[in-house]
Design goal:
Blueprint: H1 13-20, E1 27-34, E2 39-48, E3 51-62, E4 65-72, E5 77-84, E6 90-98, E7 105-111, E8 115-122, E9 128-136, E10 140-149, E11 154-166, E12 169-176, E13 181-189, E14 196-205, E15 210-220, E16 225-232, E17 236-246, E18 249-258, E19 267-274
Parallel strand pairs: 1-19
Antiparallel strand pairs: 1-2, 2-3, 3-4, 4-5, 5-6, 6-7, 7-8, 8-9, 9-10, 10-11, 11-12, 12-13, 13-14, 14-15, 15-16, 16-17, 17-18, 18-19
Length: about 280
């Protein structure tokens, strides 16, 4: 694929990942392996509250084709087939879920030096069409997103955003929820090796006049350990600890605490991912 402004979903992604990724309250255990022929196998077990679930994922890659299939404990089968460069600078993604026949989706992505366009349609009797377009460069990008229900003739969503990215920082503004919310984010790396970073996010919902402000940070203690933390104006304090116990295998401990409700116990999450 050519270098360019990236997908619309990439707008604000760096800051969003730092504030949301791995902040879990579940217990999760996964084992992954990969053969020389390109076949990967991942088994995952998750316990959330008193409910335990699990899934087995098998992936296979050959040349420009990637196939991934997941089977969970509720007998749902989710398969994704990705084929790159059927036409130069394109990617075609087909998603199939069984037995839910209404969830099938076909997506086409086109990448250009100064533009990225995607189109996705659900493969059912009442298709919904999603379109995105992003213009610019890896340094600055403008994008729009729209969803259209062909049955009702109504737009399910329309969103616009701008992203400015530098090696040491990234800033974005997104107008979403059909113009009802606006969100601005800023991430800044505090050192050249990117071992530490600070991030801030502010959002406003116009229909309720509600403002939300969240600040967070990341710090790499050493080559094996990374800690993250965040705090919102609603008193939600979260923390994450990543530690590489053996090469390619990670243990993640997360916690969330409501500073405005000191009588409530904090929530904890634990994830162990093993890769031979």
């Amino acid at each position: 694929m050519t270098s360019g402004p990236g997908l619309f979903s990439d707008i604000g992604k760096r800051a969003k990942d730092l504030l949301t990724k791995d902040y879990l309250s579940d217990q999760k255990f996964s084992i992954s392996s990969c053969s020389d022929s390109g076949v990967g196998l991942t088994s995952t077990a998750v316990k959330k509250g008193g409910l335990s679930t699990g899934e087995v994922a098998v992936s296979y890659s050959y040349k420009n084709t990637m196939v991934e299939s997941k089977v969970d404990t509720e007998s749902n089968i989710f398969t994704t087939i990705t084929v790159a460069d059927i036409v130069p600078s394109t990617k075609v993604i087909t998603s199939i879920k069984l037995p839910d026949l209404s969830s099938h989706k076909l997506e086409v992505q086109y990448f250009h030096h100064h533009a990225t366009v995607t189109s996705a349609v659900t493969l059912n009797k009442n298709p919904i069409v999603d379109l995105t377009a992003t213009l610019g460069t890896p340094a600055i990008a403008f994008g729009v997103e729209a969803g259209y229900d062909t049955t009702s003739g109504n737009f399910t969503k329309y969103t616009a955003g701008v992203n400015v990215s530098k090696p040491e920082s990234c800033a974005s503004i997104v107008l979403g929820d059909k113009g009802d919310t606006i969100k601005a984010t800023y991430l800044h790396h505090l050192d050249q090796l990117k071992k530490s970073a600070a991030v801030a996010e502010i959002s406003r919902r116009f229909s309720t006049n509600e403002n939300t402000f969240t600040v967070g940070g990341l710090y790499a203690v050493d080559d094996l350990t990374v800690v993250k933390a965040k705090l919102s104006n609603h008193g939600k304090l979260g923390a994450v600890l990543h530690h590489q116990v053996i090469p390619k295998s990670m243990v993640t401990i997360s916690s969330e605490f409501d500073t405005l409700a000191l009588d409530k116990c904090p929530r904890f999450g634990l994830t162990l991912a093993l890769k031979p």
